[in-house]
Design brief:
Elements (H helix, E strand, L loop, with lengths): L14 H10 L3 E5 L3 H9 L4 E4 L3 H4 L11 H14 L4 E5 L9 H15 L3 E5 L5 H9 L4 E6 L5 H4 L9 H17 L3 E5 L3 H10 L4 E4 L7 E4 L1 H4 L17 H17 L11
Parallel strand pairs: 1-2, 1-8, 2-3, 3-4, 4-5, 5-6, 6-7, 7-8
The structure holds 3-methyl-2-oxobutanoic acid.
Length: 274
């Protein structure tokens, strides 16, 4: 069992650090991570928050939406990330079905995640629809990150993954929900795939940090899905994505070289043998 005595490590990012960053005007860098090896590398790079996102359903399990992934699967990923973490705050993304079936179920699932993974905080999608859940988690001492704008768990209701809040009514609801989430005690808010002007307005009106993905530059921080920014997601290339490396290409090239070496009896050499 890993130690969860986080406050022995003064360099560890906490929710207080995140609040101070907004106050100081320091941008927050968040990336999704789902496994030990990547978490070790990303944590060493100085990322502030590692999100064990339910996008694991896409990147790790190959589903076309985030809906099928279970709490238990997510908890396996989360434990691996926490084992690697030395610096970053680790946030666990509550998957579809883990907080929609009633307050007691939601609290029971949240408590299991906090006890059994060692994550520092939870994220959940939705505004006014799930305020009671947010309030209960906060009352239990569990830090909560909200998520508005495109909520991938609602893809069937939307009919796709298009830009959200382009119409006044949805933009007004988003602004209202952002305020409600702040009042309910969220320590931060993710805004996904909405117009940059709307995101900027929300970020400047809230005292909690707003972290954007496809929400423009005038928010308090940014998040990207790790596999996407590393060029490992094939043809998936939305406008908001900046590709920082072509690791996917390098992996395929390295694996192909290995295949060729094995086939030609080029590997292992005598120097690589006992
Ligand atoms: O699951 C995820 O990767 C997310 C981010 C896009 C914020 O929720």
């Amino acid at each position: 069992m890993e130690s969860h005595y986080i406050f022995e490590n003064t360099k560890r990012v906490t929710v207080s650090t995140i609040a101070q960053m907004k106050a100081a005007g320091e941008k927050i860098a968040m990336l999704t991570v789902y496994d030990y090896t990547m978490a070790r590398l990303v944590d060493a790079a100085g990322v502030d928050i590692m999100l064990v996102g339910d996008s694991a359903a896409n990147t790790m399990a190959g589903y076309s939406t985030t809906l099928p992934i279970t709490l238990q699967e997510m908890m396996v990923y989360a434990r691996s990330v926490v084992r690697a973490r030395e610096h970053a705050l680790v946030v666990f993304d509550m998957p579809f079905g883990s907080y929609q079936t009633g307050l007691d179920d939601a609290v029971s699932n949240a408590v299991s995640v906090m006890k059994e993974t060692g994550c520092d905080a939870l994220k959940l999608e939705g505004g006014s629809e799930h305020l009671d859940v947010v309030r209960r988690f906060v009352e239990c001492g569990i830090p909560v990150m909200g998520h508005l704008g495109l909520q991938p768990q609602r893809v069937n209701a939307y009919g796709g993954f298009a830009l959200r809040a382009t119409q006044q009514a949805e933009a007004d609801k988003l602004k209202k929900d952002a305020l409600l989430l702040q009042e309910a005690g969220c320590f931060a808010l993710v805004l996904e795939k909405i117009p940059a002007t709307l995101a900027a307005e929300v970020a400047s009106s809230l005292s909690i940090p707003v972290i954007g993905i496809g929400a423009g530059p005038n928010v308090d921080g940014q998040v990207l899905v790790l596999q996407d920014m590393l060029g490992m997601s094939g043809t998936f290339h939305p406008k908001f994505l900046r590709t920082y490396a072509n690791i996917g290409e390098q992996i395929t090239k390295a694996a192909a070289q290995y295949v060729a070496d094995v086939k030609q009896s080029d590997f292992p050499s005598l120097e690589e043998s006992y």
